[in-house]
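Review box. Two proteins, two foldings.
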Amino acid sequence: MSQLEQLKDQVVNHPQVKAAQSWYEALQARDQLIVRGVAVFVALALVFLMVYAPLIKEQRQLENKLERAVASYNRIADNAHKFGGAAGTSSGPILSVVTQQARKSGILLSRYEQDGKGLRVWLEKVAFDEAIEWLENLQSSNGIRVSQINIDRKENPGWVDIRATLTP
């Protein structure tokens, strides 16, 4: 006889279990139905309290932790320029920074013009990957962002014409 069968026999033959079975069998059919309904409700309540309630509590704690982390990140990003970071400001007038970075990256600006505080640039027949890398470097190292962009593909795969508006 396995341990599970032995445990089952011990529970079934326990005096209090036998008394509960006798009590249940002595009830009328309607009362037995009510007892079964209450037992199902209690079982569901226990499952909820033991499984779902801790999961819901953990989710709320993680949501609060995420909100605090995002708020902290936003405070740091907003104040990075105060501590010598490049996230909030560029290191000079936008035109000079953009042209200098383009030269370093081997990007040829076909045309450019000032647009208030921003700068509109045209790139013709450039490799898409190189142009996107240059735009990402402008943002990460100088805080210059692309506020508007239009990309037209060329006949050769991987080559594009780009018109973009850059803002500090």
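Next protein.
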Amino acid sequence: MTDLEQFLAHVRFGAVIEGGSDLHRFMHGAAQEALRTVAELNSGYRTPEEVRALMSELTGAEVDESVTVFPPFHSEFGKNLTFGRNVFVNLGCRFQDTGGISIGDGSLIGHGSTLTTLNHAVDPDRRADMVPAPIVIGRQVWLGAAVTVVPGVTIGDGAIVGAGAVVTKDVPAHTIVAGVPARVVRATGFGGGRVPA
């Protein structure tokens, strides 16, 4: 029987979660626990302290008092989600953190943003299989409203992602990206970032 540490070790390795496997069943069981916590978070007004307590319950680790999350907030796993200090998550964000989401100190996540860390198999006969890949958001990153970040993307320190962008590739530190798919627009002008050639 799979436990949380075994599951997290498996996904950190990037190994396939086979549909119908013990790992798959564990993931679905963990999702039910997360969904209960998220339902409580989103069922009415919560003070900032209550929100942080529920986020700590969701993630299985204490969320720093400097973190602010504005509900509604959605996560289907929770236990592979980490926040740095002074992180702000605006209304209506959806984090599929099964494959791992890490958000660095001072980062801002715009309302309605979606971060997803699982891909399904391309082969239709194996479509229930999932391939995890983490999202890493550096320090002092700003995601605009309704940004989508796909599995396996790293967003470098100080980067800005324009509203509505779909981020399919790593974003260099101290650059601004925008569009679908997101492309580098320019350097931020802070932190010595250069626009890649």
